[in-house]
Write a structure and sequence with these properties.
The complex is a heterodimer. By secondary structure, chain A is an alpha/beta fold. Chain A has 17 helices and 14 strands. In chain A, the strands form four sheets. Chain A has a six-stranded mixed sheet with strand order 3-4-14-9-10-13, sandwiched between helices. Chain A has a four-stranded parallel sheet with strand order 7-6-5-8, with helices on both faces. A two-stranded antiparallel sheet of chain A has the order 1-2. By secondary structure, chain B is α/β, with parallel strands linked by helices.
Chain lengths: 407, 279
């Protein structure tokens, strides 16, 4: 492990100029999109050196999003597990209820700087759709959100939130009717309307520069957490834990710690009804390398290379691919990826709610579940930092349905 | 010599423009595909494009997306597609055949094995929609080693630098995506086409096919005045979607393609002077 780690290139050198993380990443898209991606890459790299843009981004993250989000020591949960201290990074306290807003504020400002009048987005749980609609409302842009019809059903409240914010929600009925199909449809829209439209991709997947750009806009989570740990605990955490669907909250937390080799990193995938069958969404734990949605990465497909339908109790993790940088972190040994089942996530949902008075999103509940396990295995002088990436209000109906409760 | 190069050579000598229909393998029924291909050739197709079904056809519109879904529901995999090509070749060893698809199923098979099997089956070229020149490295090498061309897309948005990068790898012909959008979307703007084709021809010494957005004989005829090949996909696939029997499918292909062929042949032969005059 240590030997592998010393051979790792610095995280700052990833991706290479063509958007590759080792063999992963790249730009596997139709030629029609290549010039748009090159334009976006250039605009993004330029604007990240623009002091006025960075000042505005900082201002919005402070006053609109409500950053910095605090660290919270979950004392009751720590006591319950009897091991390492469990510290939560409270991204659930952000405006709109999840880490997704960090990225949409950044991409929204970039879209405005590029003179685009219309933004589009894909969404699974609806959190990224809401965060995109929120930013579009504030910047006075038209907004169209693509959402699988299965997710529209599961996340009705978020659909209505997006509509209240003035966005058009397009229900996508093709394929598995979930996040992957919403992403296909958003790409089709972008190909067609590439002149006036900015595609706000919500995760660290897709063609370059999206994986790097979404990571960098979310890296504020890791930068804050690192500084807060040093200020408040006088040390770095022993382990980071974050859930991974596409992988944006995990990448945002991990990135500023990649060079701190003593900090272990755990990405938690949705093991659904178990990793032995196909009813899960754990592409890093149980998938293989292929090409999906514009990049080479780990994915879930059948023997013929057709993308499989996935399952997770949480819509936001229900995705057959994963960001290419996670694939690279896995293969290089820098991060470890594990699975948490639907049942374990639900148990953690209740545990955090009852012991700390904090209701996590079902996505984040996967991270909580693994964080609890890990804390139990470590000693009291150690710290496990869990990214509480979103709040659970949107999932109340899902939890009630699963437990057979009618209102 | 690759069948595609032979075909374009003889078309050029005759002053004719190639008609290139696209159909999805296994749609509407795997048992129809080979006969659909033969019917297309009989109705005047000079090359045929056969789509390999994929679950996530990001660059295709609803028509081809639906065709792929129907083909996959009936179990059309890569082996079936190659078997269809072998069967087609039993009766037709001259018409060039291009396989069109997406990267993942080919990666799963392995590009070396795929290239070998495709060449053995009688495939002449491969067009991988989500594999621009930048990512083509390994696959391109394997295809070349097996005598197969790799066809690349160029778009109205393609920059000069990208045209040059693509020209370095492109073989057979280059496929100009005539509209911004997915397959089967809006109708193309013929007036905007002439300057685009001009800039492609300056950088590429290959026949130029135009596709995406061509639905009617008149459109095909006006594109034929400028391009070396006219590709028709979604408009044909849409009609095939309604066919319940093989005979019906053959009839639909014939009735759809014959007027297109006729309109193309009645228009002026391809000629760069004409093209300039028209623009």
């Amino acid at each position: 492990m240590a030997e592998t780690a010393t051979r790792l290139p610095s995280s700052e050198s990833m991706p290479d100029p063509t958007g590759h993380y080792g063999v992963f990443g790249g730009r596997f898209v139709s030629e029609t999109l290549m010039p748009a991606l090159e334009e976006l890459d250039l605009a993004w790299r330029q604007i990240m050196k623009d002091k006025a843009f960075l000042a505005e981004l900082d201002h919005d993250l402070t006053h609109f999003v409500g950053r910095p989000s605090p660290l919270y020591l979950a004392e009751n949960l720590t006591r319950k597990m009897g091991g390492a201290r469990i510290v939560l990074k409270r991204e659930d306290l952000n405006h709109t209820g999840a880490h997704k807003i960090n990225n949409t504020v950044g991409q929204g400002l970039l879209a405005r700087a590029m003179g685009k009048k219309r933004v589009i987005a894909e969404t699974g749980a609806g959190q990224h759709g809401v965060a995109s609609a929120t930013v579009a409302a504030r910047l006075g842009m038209d907004c169209v959100v693509y959402m699988g019809s299965e997710d529209v059903r599961r996340q009705a409240v978020n659909v209505y939130r997006m509509k209240l914010l003035g966005a058009e929600v397009v229900s996508v009925d093709s394929g598995s009717k979930t996040l992957k199909d919403a992403l296909n449809e958003a790409m089709r829209d972008w190909v067609t309307n590439v002149d006036d439209t900015f595609y706000i991709l919500g995760t660290v997947a897709g063609p370059h520069p999206y994986p790097a750009m979404v990571r960098d806009f979310n890296a504020v989570v890791g930068r804050e957490a690192r500084r807060q740990m040093l200020d408040e605990y006088g040390c770095l955490p022993d382990a980071l834990v974050a859930c991974v669907g596409g992988g944006s909250n995990a990448m945002g937390l991990f990135h500023p710690f990649v060079d701190d080799r003593e900090v272990a990193m755990y990405g938690v995938e949705a093991a659904g009804r178990g990793l032995s069958g196909h009813e899960h969404a754990a592409s890093l734990c149980a998938g293989r390398v292929g090409v999906l949605h514009g990049s080479r990465t780990y994915l879930l497909d059948d023997e013929a290379g057709q993308i499989r339908d996935t399952h997770s109790v949480s819509a936001g993790l229900d995705y057959p691919g994963v960001g290419p940088e996670h694939a690279w972190l896995k293969d290089s040994g820098r991060a470890e990826y594990v699975g948490i089942t639907d049942d374990e996530a639900l148990e953690a949902f209740h545990a955090l709610t009852r012991s700390e008075g904090i209701m996590p999103a079902l996505e984040s509940a996967h991270a909580i579940a693994y964080g609890m396990k890990l804390a139990g295995e470590l000693s009291a002088d150690q710290v496990v930092l869990v990214n509480l990436s979103g709040r659970g209000d949107k999932d109340i109906q899902t939890v009630a349905d699963l437990e057979g409760i009618e209102f | 010599m690759n069948r595609i190069d032979q075909r374009f050579q003889s078309l050029k000598a005759q002053g004719r423009v190639a008609l290139v229909p696209y159909v999805t393998a296994g749609h509407p029924d795997p048992g129809f595909t080979v006969d659909i291909l033969h019917a297309a050739v009989a109705a005047g197709a000079d090359l045929v494009e056969l789509g390999m079904p994929f679950s996530d056809v990001m660059a295709d519109g609803p028509v081809i997306q639906n065709a792929c879904a129907r083909a996959l529901e009936q179990g059309t995999g890569l082996d079936h597609v190659l078997a269809m090509v072998r069967e087609f070749r039993q009766r037709d060893d001259e018409t060039p055949l291009v396989l069109m698809g997406y990267t993942n199923p080919i990666e799963r098979r392995g590009s070396e094995r795929f290239a070998r099997e495709a060449a053995e089956a009688g495939v002449d070229a491969l067009l991988i929609v989500d594999c621009p020149a930048d990512e083509a490295g390994d696959l391109h090498g394997q295809l070349a080693a097996n005598g197969l061309h790799q066809i690349f897309l160029v778009a109205p948005t393609t920059t000069q630098a990208r045209l040059e990068r693509t020209a370095a790898l492109a073989g057979g012909f280059v496929y100009h995506v005539s509209i911004k959008g997915v397959t089967g979307a809006a109708t193309l703007d013929v007036d905007a086409l002439a300057p685009m084709l001009e800039s492609i021809r300056v950088r590429m010494d290959l026949p130029v096919a135009v596709g995406f957005g061509i639905r009617k004989p008149e459109q095909a005829a006006s594109v034929a005045r400028l391009a070396d090949a006219v590709v028709i996909g979604s408009a044909l696939v849409e009609r095939l979607d309604e066919c319940d029997s093989k005979d019906q499918a053959i009839e639909v292909v014939t009735e759809f393609l014959a007027p297109v062929r006729q309109a193309m042949d009645n228009g002026s032969p391809v000629n760069s002077e004409k093209a300039v005059n028209l623009s």
